[in-house]
């Protein structure tokens, strides 16, 4: 299986505070890898360090192909544009047809009647769908997602998860940070539990079941508790 991302001993710190503390991991094509942890665990900083959005203080990062696509936790969209204008711009940069923008927005659950509405008039959930459509446009082989379900209701989350599963099964690689354990269990093949900038435990997800949700919740509670770190 081809490796999409390999990082070794990645570190990011501010002064004496280590946000990412010597993390190593490997993500393969056709695999979804989850990052689970409490606020401040270092998940977002890890993702930004991989992308080069923040300068790491040490470690190695290798991509097998093009740099990954990225959906930030709080995407900043040009609110004066419509979703269709934004996606058509992205499609043009990849040599895709303008019609592909409409198809992508439809796949993300945005009704055709709203495609030409200015983004400033969209709800948070609709903006999140638009941002995800922008990230997925061009069929990237590797996508980094930071809280991709932010602002989505239960139906929206189910629709997005179904689309991501299709992309994963088609060979795309995902690294996803989320607070929603049920979403992580539905999509991911493995989950890395983070606390205080370190990976504390790796959990394999084989059944995508409610039992595994409970297992992850218990492990998260354990590693974010006050017991001594091993």
SSE map:
Elements: E1 3-14, E2 17-28, E3 32-36, H1 43-51, E4 58-63, E5 69-71, H2 83-93, H3 98-107, H4 124-136, E6 142-146, H5 154-169, E7 173-177, H6 181-187, E8 190-195, E9 198-204, H7 210-223
Parallel strand pairs: 3-7, 3-8, 5-6, 6-7
Antiparallel strand pairs: 1-2, 1-4, 8-9
Helix pairs in contact: 2-3, 2-4, 6-7
Describe the structure.
It is a single chain. This protein is of the alpha/beta class. It has a domain of 63 residues. The protein has seven helices and nine strands. The strands form two sheets. The protein has a six-stranded mixed β-sheet, with helices on both faces. A three-stranded antiparallel β-sheet has the order 2-1-4, with helices on one face. Strand 1 and strand 2 form a beta hairpin. Helix 2 packs parallel to helix 4. It starts with a strand and ends in a 7-residue tail after the last helix. The relative contact order is 0.18. The model has no long low-confidence stretch (mean pLDDT 92).
